[in-house]
Amino acid sequence: MLQSLASDPAALRGMAANWDKVREEVLASVGATLVLYERTHAAAPWLSYFAKREGDLVGICSFAAPPAAGLVEIAYFTFPPYERRGVALAMAAKLVRIAFDAPEVSAVIAHTAPEENASTHILRKLGFHRDGSVQDEEIGEAWRWRKSRTL
Asked: Number of structural domains, the chain?
């Protein structure tokens, strides 16, 4: 599906009532997702997912790669017209549920900018704790967050 969207983005018009509002974000997300899949050879459920609300595309969330050594990293992005409406929290919560449905996952991690922001609030709300700092290839120095599986 993503490959066809990259080659024919007009195919998405019928899927989203708000295509004109989010076109650039969606196309950028599709391109980045194709690069991610090429690099990680991702397979279900370790994929990217568009979030829809009332017929509108409102964001995208993803696993950075399939689990390794019991860890899986999540990422999420709310399209700007839909920020501050609970979209990122819902996407992150769904990814955590998908991750912990897999017995090989012992913890979910996420990276944020090294400052308090909306993402740090979301991760804390979901039970993540700050687990040090790392170098992230996209944002540079980042805070690492971790949520371990509860028994």
From this structure: 1
